[in-house]
Amino acid sequence: MKPDKLGRKNKSFPPIVINCDSCGADLELHWNEQSCNRAFCNRECHLLLKTNKSVRKPELRYAILRLMRDHPLEQWNVKELARMLDQSYTRWRVNAAVVAQLLRTMKTSVQRIEPCVYELKPEAKTGPLMRFVVRTGA
Ligand SMILES: [Zn+2]
What CA–CA distance (Å, rounded) separates 27 from 17? Predict the structure, then answer.
């Protein structure tokens, strides 16, 4: 057994339960599994994010919200946010201009504190993030 990212080899960690970021269903995560980064319960829920056409760049919007929610930092400078996203997603080149542009349109989930600084709204901190990513009824 290979140690996970944090170097843990102990497989007796109990599974943790999170909620699917799309439909809200319970999702059991097991330490030491590839699925540690999972946030969706099944392929359809993940596919919804990739295929939804109601907004531009749904995957990047979701990545922004997930980083803001799951990282302890409360307030985010757009440049810092873009830099972290750029490093974590090898498939994309993420720059601050694109992130700033998306954040300006994500008024239901993020709040601008000062120019180029945003925080996640309290209502986006619990429950599926998908409801802030795609337009409902689309
Ligand atoms: Zn789901």
Answer: 5
